């Protein structure tokens, strides 16, 4: 299931994946809150709660963009189909990737804005500012749409601050 999400990501050793989690999100703006809750729970389970603020901000922006720009005019899921938006969190030894899948084939567009007090139009600017890198790619095969991902570098095990 996660293999198509790795297409287009920076090179990662699949054998080094230590954890992965995903959740389906309904086509409602309340899904952003659900995505934050899921992210909090997952990062706590992975003992990464200290990264929650930055990761949560990025997840919120990616999910909001998927709901706002990635869904057709009527985003309801017809009988039994998979929800249109899905959040994936994947952790490698030194990297955490947040990926949001939606049914649109349109590329995400970062808007040029000088008004940093506006309430919209800054999502990808925030993703770029708070993550180490981000990108997107169309999905192939049985999955339709695209995935937008953000990567966070994690400290090497044993290279963190020393306490005496």
Could you explain the architecture of this structure?
With 164 residues, the chain is α+β, with helices and mostly antiparallel strands. Helix content is 27%, strand content 22%. It has 4 helices and 5 strands. It has a 5-stranded antiparallel β-sheet, with helices on one face. A hairpin with a 3-residue loop joins β2 (85-91) and β3. α3 packs antiparallel against α4 (123-130). It is globular.
Order of helices and strands: HEHHEEHEE
Q: How much β-strand is present in the residues?
A: 15-25%
Spatial sequence of strands, sheet with the most strands: 1-2-3-5-4
Look at the helices and sheets and give the structural class.
Answer: alpha+beta
Low-confidence stretches: 4-8, 74-80
Largest sheet composition: 5 strands, antiparallel
User: What is the terminal-to-terminal distance?
Assistant: 44 Å
Radius of gyration: 16 Å
Question: What's the overall geometry?
Answer: globular
The averaged pLDDT comes out at 80
**Helicity level:** 25-40%
SS field, number of helical segments: 4
Secondary structure tally: strands: 5
């Amino acid at each position: 299931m996660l293999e198509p999400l790795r297409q287009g990501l920076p090179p990662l050793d699949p054998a080094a994946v230590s954890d992965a989690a995903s959740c389906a999100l309904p086509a409602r703006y309340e899904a952003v809150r659900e995505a934050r809750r899921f992210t909090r729970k997952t990062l706590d389970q992975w003992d990464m709660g200290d990264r929650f603020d930055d990761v949560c901000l990025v997840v919120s922006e990616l999910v909001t963009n998927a709901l706002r720009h990635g869904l057709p005019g009527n985003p309801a899921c017809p009988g039994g189909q998979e929800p249109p938006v899905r959040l994936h969190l994947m952790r490698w030894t030194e990297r955490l990737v947040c990926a949001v899948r939606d049914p649109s084939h349109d590329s995400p567009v970062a808007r040029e804005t000088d008004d940093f007090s506006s309430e919209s139009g800054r999502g990808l600017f925030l993703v770029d500012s708070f993550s180490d890198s981000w990108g997107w790619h169309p999905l192939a095969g049985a999955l339709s749409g695209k995935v937008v991902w953000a990567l966070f570098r994690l400290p090497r095990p044993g290279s963190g601050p020393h306490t005496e």
